[in-house]
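[job 4417] fold queue: 2 targets
>>> target A
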Amino acid sequence: MKQRTIWVLMFSLALASSSAAQTKTSGTISCAKPDPAYSVDAGDRAGHALGLMKSACTWTTPMQIEGVATKDGFDVVTSDRSGAKVRANGYHFSNMANGDKIFVRFSGTDTMKDGKPDTSAGTWSYTGGTGKFKGIAGKGTYNGKADASGNMVNEIEGDYTLPAPK
C-alpha cells in the first residue's frame, strides 16, 4: 500500500510539473514609424533628448501561443537618447487571432544612424493577458533592424507558461 501511495504521489508531481513547463515561441514583428512621437531636449548636453511615442505593429511571422497566432497591436515607448544611442522602455499590446490579448513590458537599447532608427535589441516579459491567456508568464529577447521604409522589424524569441486549467 505504501509503495502504491508513493507511485501515485510521484505521478501527481510529474503531472503538476509538466503543466507548468515553459514552451518556446518565436515570431517577427514590424512596427511602423511612431505616430504620435514627442521629443524634448533634456538641456544638459547636445543630442540628449527624452521621448514618448506610439507605433502600430503587425506580426509578419506570428508567434504561436497554445495554437493561437499573434496578429497586430502597438508599442508605447519612452526613450532616453544620447547621440546615436537610445535606451528604450515600453509596453506592447498584441491582439490574438481568437480575439484575446497579451501584454508585454520591454527594455532595450536602440541605435540611430543619420538621425533615423537603425537597430534594436533587448529583453521582454509578459505582464498579462485576457481570455485563454489570462495569467500568462514568460520572457524573452528581441533583435531588430529598420527596413527601407523606416519600420523597425524585430525577431522575437522567448518562452511562456499558462496557469493550469481550473
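>>> target B
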Amino acid sequence: MNWSSARDEAVIGDIVVVSGLPRSGTSMMMRMLEAGGVNLLTDSERGADDDNPRGYYEYAPVKRLARDASWVRDARGKAIKVVSRLLYELPTDFNYDVVFMQREIGEVLASQQVMLTRMGTRVAESEQEQLRLRFQSHLVELEEWLARQRCFRVLCTEFARVHAAAEEEAVRVRDFLGQDLDTNAMARAVDEALYRQRAN
C-alpha cells in the first residue's frame, strides 16, 4: 500500500509516531530513530524479553489513550510508538508524522504465535484465519481514515525492505521527517538476526 494523507507534506509534525500492527517491526524502527538522534518518549515498564531482546520502546500511557490523552503534549519533539488501532485516539490538536511499519500478515501472525506459545497459549488455525481477515480489514479502514485526517502525514516502510536495504530506508525516513539524522547509525541498528519469521 502507498498511503498518503490530507495534510500538506511540507508541514513538519509536532510528534513522530511509529505505528503498525503488533509484531510488524515498530520496536525496530524506534531503535533506528534513537540511533539516528531522535528523542524518544518511552518508559521501562515493559522490559526486553526473548521476543524483543532489544526492548519494546513502549510508553505505558499509550495503552490508556482512549481514556486519557493529556500526556500527548509531552511527546512534542519526540517519537512515540502507538499501535495502529490506537491511532484513532490521538488528539487532533497536534500534527503527526507517522512512520507506518508494514509486514506480510503471515509473518505477523507467525511472530505472534511464537510469542503466545512462549506464554503457554496456542491459537487454532481457524482463529489465525479470522485474525488475518480482521487485520486486513483494519488496515484498509485505517488507510481510508488517515487519508481524511489533516493532522497526519504518513510514510510507509516495509519490514522486509528495511532488512534488505536498511541504509536506503533510513534515508527515506530522514527525508520524510525533515531532520538531520545519522542514517548510517540507523542502518546499523537493524539486527538481521531478529528477522526470525519469514514468508515462504
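[job 4417] complete. Note on B: The longest helix spans residues 125-147.
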